[in-house]
Design goal:
The chain has 635 residues and is of the alpha+beta class. It has helices spanning 2-12, 29-55, 70-79, 102-109, 114-118, 159-171, 232-241, 259-262, 270-273, 301-307, 352-370, 396-411, 434-438, 464-481, 493-496, 529-542, 544-549, 566-571, 575-585, 618-634; strands at residues 86-88, 152-155, 176-179, 195-198, 205-211, 221-227, 244-245, 280-286, 292-295, 317-324, 326-327, 331-340, 375-382, 385-393, 417-418, 425-431, 448-453, 456-457, 483-488, 513-523. It has 20 helices and 20 strands. Strands 12, 13, 14, 15, 16, 17, 18, 19 and 20 form a nine-stranded antiparallel sheet that branches. The protein has a five-stranded antiparallel sheet with strand order 5-6-10-8-9. The chain has a four-stranded mixed sheet with strand order 1-2-4-3, with helices on one face.
């Protein structure tokens, strides 16, 4: 990193008296040439590193002469598997330039439908990421500009399409982005002026009764081979029909082979079977050099390490992945839908919501101490009440034990809590399958949020004062942002996996954490720069108290856009190892993104950066770098 070299240059510089100028060396040729000899090696290295740093993100843009010609694009099309594989990518809202059109009617009617949005090559589940800052195409109104929506793309039907696309992007110095479904809270799968590799239609899940990686000592296991664009809903349906389960995401339209798993991947089955990365057996990926590589514990093991937690959109294009499956255990559901008694919320520190949050923290401790690794699931807490959707690994009779603890305490405070409304109440039931517990619903999308999250250590729950402070700070998040999504996803097999912290690249603090509270600040579909800045600042600042009570650890896929100490929070001690892998598999930066390993946010950059950058011509960048390095060397 150039920063370290700059420090090195500073430590080795000559210290001149105040008012002197280094070129006084010209009076003494021997002294001058000794000075040059001592400094030249640093100057050359600095020159090259600064040039590389400037060039790393100087991609060819559509308005530049370097942009591929029509014949170049025709040449790429001839290499692809289908006549419709090369696509022009449009902002989804472009359909409403004709407000009465069927396309506009469809968009407006399905705006919050995650399945519909995932089928739009230019669509993101959070539409703000379709804009470049505030420049884009919005519903309603004009102008309609490309924003951050890629300009051209390849619809992958075969893995060779991904090979051709990567080679084309690298050869023409294009900003290459990879997208399957657009479930992306941080905009890593789209970029202004970019070239899209769209995996959405490359789907399929093949279940296997016996699979082995061929690694020494590897035992056969049941598994599922998933193609790069497959969504979790398809995998879950297939698993249910075979009486097996697989660890995956909660939203059915999330991609099973993309950023979800590369960011670590948690799910309701994690306490029973580990994180998604703990269940990956093999990955097939096209890297930046256009080569198809297999990665497993014994083949390309460093790449395998990076792909299991090192973050999506940064290592290549995953064309298939193999997950371990597990025999389906007994499953039970506990659902609670509870409202606050009107007029109680916010009246004092022991108001309904704050009372519940502290009680909730105590309940999590009870579950972990009495039925460890058995409970998981989600909670949504807002200013009106809360919804708990919990999964128990075991019988409904055993689930009742844990459920009764919190139900009885809530019912004892009828002055604070009520279930006297439609859908209100408590239920415990046995589930015939994972999808029986989950249901067919998926998350609603199409809204804009700036989000932030935090991992809460298991040990915190056994310190009563600290636990109460943490859950009171989570109540602060509800008051400030309107909601918190609380996920019980740690402990059990998550804690037991990767005991030496050297097999997967997720932050090792995942292994000692129990819950993940997530919040966010909303902003409108059509927004100003001040709206966006306010939301991001609110998400960032609202987490301050919770951050002060917990270690640096956040879930990569759902973290703050301005996550403080982001390298430590996402990867802990793994970053330097990941940086080495990045240099090995993508030395020229074909793939890059925000808060990615070696990406567009500086390693120690904790200042909110500008959202724009300037493309600098190669020669100018090199000369600028040399001049700047010269100033450093002679300073």
């Amino acid at each position: 990193e150039t920063r370290h070299l700059c420090s090195h240059l500073h430590l080795h510089r000559l210290h001149f008296q105040k008012g002197t100028f280094p070129f006084f060396f010209l009076r003494d040729k021997t002294l001058f040439f000794n000075f040059l000899k001592d400094r030249m090696r640093y100057l050359v290295i600095a020159c090259l590193l600064f040039s590389a740093a400037v060039q790393a993100h100087s991609y060819c843009m559509p308005e530049e002469s370097c942009w591929p010609s029509a014949s170049d694009w025709q040449g790429l099309a001839s290499q692809l598997s289908d006549s419709d594989s090369l696509i022009d990518v449009s902002p989804p809202a472009q359909a409403c330039l004709s407000p009465e059109s069927a396309g506009c009617e469809m968009l407006l009617g399905q705006f919050a439908n995650a399945g519909y949005r995932s089928g739009l090559p230019g669509g993101m589940q959070m539409p703000a990421w379709e804009a470049n800052g505030t420049v884009g195409c919005f519903v309603p109104g004009e102008p309609c500009l490309q924003g951050a929506v890629p300009v051209k793309g390849v619809k992958v039907h075969k893995k060779e399409d991904a090979v051709a696309a990567i080679n084309f992007g690298r050869q023409h110095n294009l900003r290459v982005v990879v997208k399957s479904t657009g479930h992306d809270y941080l905009g890593r799968s789209t970029a202004p002026g970019s070239f899209l590799i769209w995996m959405h239609e490359y789907t399929g899940a093949k279940f296997m009764d016996s699979f082995t990686t061929g690694c020494p000592g590897a035992s056969p296991t049941t598994a599922v081979h998933v193609l790069g664009g497959t969504q979790w809903g398809e995998v879950y349906e297939g698993a249910d029909s075979r009486n097996v389960v697989v660890v995956g995401g909660n939203a059915l339209t999330v991609g099973a082979a993309g950023g979800y798993v590369q960011g670590g991947g948690h799910g309701a089955l994690s306490p029973a079977f580990g994180l998604a990365v703990d269940n990956v057996l093999e990955v097939e990926i096209v890297t930046a050099d256009g080569q198809i590589r297999n990665a497993s514990a014994c083949e390309n093991p460093e790449l395998f390490f990076a792909l299991r937690g090192g973050g999506g959109g940064n290592w290549g294009v995953i064309v298939s992945i193999v997950y371990k499956t597990h025999p389906r255990p007994a499953l039970a559901d506990f659902t609670a839908v509870v409202g606050y008694v009107p007029g109680v919320f916010g009246s004092n520190k022991e108001g309904a919501m704050r009372y519940f949050m502290k009680l909730y923290g105590q309940w999590i401790k009870y579950l972990d101490s009495t039925q460890p690794g058995k409970w998981s699931g989600y909670g949504l807490i807002d200013k009106n009440g809360f919804l708990l959707k919990k999964l128990f690994i075991g019988s409904d009779a055993d689930a009742q034990t844990g459920a009764s603890w919190i139900q009885s305490r809530l019912e004892a405070r009828a002055d604070l809590f009520t279930t006297s409304f439609q859908y209100g109440g408590y239920t415990v039931r046995s589930c015939g399958s994972f999808m029986d517990w989950h249901g067919q619903q998926t998350d609603e999308t199409g809204s804009n949020f700036a989000i932030a999250d935090r991992l809460v250590p298991t040990a915190s729950f056994y310190n009563d004062t600290l636990r109460d402070d943490i859950y009171d700070s989570i109540a602060d998040l509800v008051e400030e942002n309107g909601f918190v999504t609380h996920m019980l996803l740690g402990g059990g097999k998550v804690a037991e996996a990767d005991p030496h912290h050297n097999e997967t690249s997720v932050n090792p603090l995942w292994r000692s954490s129990l819950t993940v509270p997530t919040t966010g600040a909303a902003f409108e579909r059509v927004f100003s720069k001040s709206d966006l800045d306010r939301a991001r600042y609110q998400a960032w600042s609202s987490m301050s108290r919770l951050r002060s009570l917990t270690p640096d650890a956040a879930y990569y896929n759902e973290a703050d856009y301005y996550e403080p100490n982001w390298v430590e929070s996402f990867w802990g001690p793994h970053y330097d190892r990941l940086l080495q892998v990045k240099g090995d598999v993508d030395p020229t930066g074909v793939f890059t993104c925000w808060q990615c390993v070696g990406g567009t946010r500086g390693r120690n950059q904790n200042i909110i950066p500008s959202s724009s950058f300037t493309v600098v011509p190669s020669l100018a960048a090199f000369l600028f770098s040399c001049v700047f390095a010269l100033l450093l060397a002679f300073a």
